[in-house]
Automatic annotation (TrEMBL), chains A, B:
GO molecular function: isomerase activity
InterPro entries linked: IolE/XylAMocC-like, Xyl_isomerase-like_sf, Xyl_isomerase-like_TIM-brl
Keywords of the record: Isomerase
Top-level lineage group: Bacteria
Source species of the chain: Meridianimarinicoccus marinus
Listed Gene3D superfamilies: Divalent-metal-dependent TIM barrel enzymes (3.20.20.150)
Boundaries of every Xylose isomerase-like TIM barrel domain copy: 29-262
Listed Pfam families: AP_endonuc_2
PANTHER family cross-referenced by the UniProt entry: HYDROXYPYRUVATE ISOMERASE, XYLOSE ISOMERASE
Stated name of the protein: Sugar phosphate isomerase/epimerase family protein
Length: 274, 274
């Protein structure tokens, strides 16, 4: 495995979403020597896409991803509004030079119990976004989300399922793997090997707290929980992954309450357990 | 599919665990015309195994399972104490004539991040219990638990993984499938078909609330949530499953606060959505 330094890390802006706006995140990364950033779209739009692109470029940061496209099921069917919003997301990803557009595909439509149907909507939507993304030179990274989010956030829930979609949809699409979502999966080692370098578009880290108090906002700093993070880094690097290691932590009662500079320092201090 | 009646239902005692002891559950099932029961071991031991067996027999109830054996990782390694406790569970299941001993296999050992190692402990433990269970004429039902319980309750998290274990361990072992744990799984239909009648030892129902407020105790009555329960019943019945449909609901803020007779009446009222 590589010996990681702060330059190999990327700050997902959600990690300090209660403390800093995007400009502050960019400045913070530069100050701490963190090599990359991954903005959420609301923060990007708030900053202004062109201004953000310039700030990121001037700070010399890599962009490990843009969070997030997807939500294909948000309106119950694949509407033009949903398709158009994903096109805008592709444009934004291109503007900031993101390694990929991370896709959180959406859960069950309101009132629906039809997860099979939801997955069909998602497949069709991904295909449409991918067509546009290819023309824009943007890679699309499907993020399989933990099965506990199948109803409300994403009905793509395993690495195998995401790769099956990639097989179906062709070039230009891969997976964005977050250890939080995949650590439990008995099939994950085989699937990471199946993915191969070209489809491993992003690698996200945080930790699974045991016990977990909240299904969304009780994620841990690397080392605080039970995930064998180095085992996963080894798996992706064995396939040739050499991109930024993105830190994305939702933590309402801990990390979101601390000074952001302290959070970034702790990310760097956690390098030995990544 | 069969047309279900109350006689096809089984009450898992956890559903009214805050209201009734085992004797009251048995009496309640008989009064409501519910055909079966599935006791938890603490309630069984509190009642006394021989007395419980007689009460169940006298009430004419089926026994869809005994909850639960397993927890092989509880002491960090497969200790004699853990093995012996599982033998006692087998004896208890035999004494009450349970269709199977339901296995919640255990999560990560205290302080461990080694889920692969935990799964090895579980496999060895299941093998030992199975040897004993065969001699006692008891079937062992592995319950794959939702991946959100991988750390703290069970590191067997998919139907495929459970069936792989069954393949490895041989006769006398199968799966106890709860829609709550498996509804999200994109591979579940194929795996239920793979299981076949002989390995479909139990079928549990409740519902997934959207949103879910608590990872353990916010399960819904059938129909309250987003699971297409009839789709799952169709899958297991297509394989020949004709056993009791067991209702197991953990619901701290709703069903555990209501009079137990009301809960049983609602179970029966939910028959059309099972």
């Amino acid at each position: 495995m590589r010996t990681l330094t702060a330059q190999d890390l990327s700050l997902n802006t959600a990690t300090v979403s209660k403390q800093w706006d995007l400009a502050e995140c960019i400045d913070g990364c530069a100050r701490h020597g963190i090599g990359g950033i991954s903005p959420w779209r609301d923060r990007l739009q708030e900053c202004g896409v062109d201004r953000a692109a310039k700030l990121i470029r001037d700070a010399g940061l890599g962009v490990s991803g843009l969070c997030r496209g997807g939500w294909y099921t948000a309106e119950g069917a694949l509407t033009q509004a949903v398709i158009d919003d994903n096109k805008r997301a592709v444009d934004e990803a291109a503007a900031i030079g993101a390694d990929c557009l991370v896709m959180v595909v959406g859960g069950l439509p309101e009132g629906s119990k039809d997860i099979v149907g939801a997955r069909e909507i998602v497949t069709e939507g991904l295909g449409k976004t991918l067509d546009y993304a290819r023309s824009a030179g943007v890679k699309v990274g499907i993020e399989p989300l933990h099965p506990m989010y199948a109803a409300d956030r994403a009905c793509v829930n395993t690495t195998k399922q995401a790769l099956d979609l990639c097989d179906q949809l062709g070039d230009g699409i891969g997976v964005a793997l977050d250890v939080y979502h995949i650590w439990w999966d008995p099939d994950v080692a085989d699937q990471i090997a199946r993915a191969g370098k070209d489809r491993l578009l992003a690698f996200h880290v945080c930790d699974w707290m045991n016990p977990t108090q909240d299904m969304l906002t009780d994620r841990g700093m690397m080392g605080e929980g039970v995930i064998d993070i180095p085992a996963f880094r080894q798996m992706v690097e064995a396939q040739g992954f050499d991109g930024l290691v993105e830190v994305e932590i939702f933590s309402a009662n801990n990390w979101w309450t601390k000074p952001a500079d302290e959070v970034l320092a702790r990310m760097i201090a956690a390098l030995p357990v990544i």
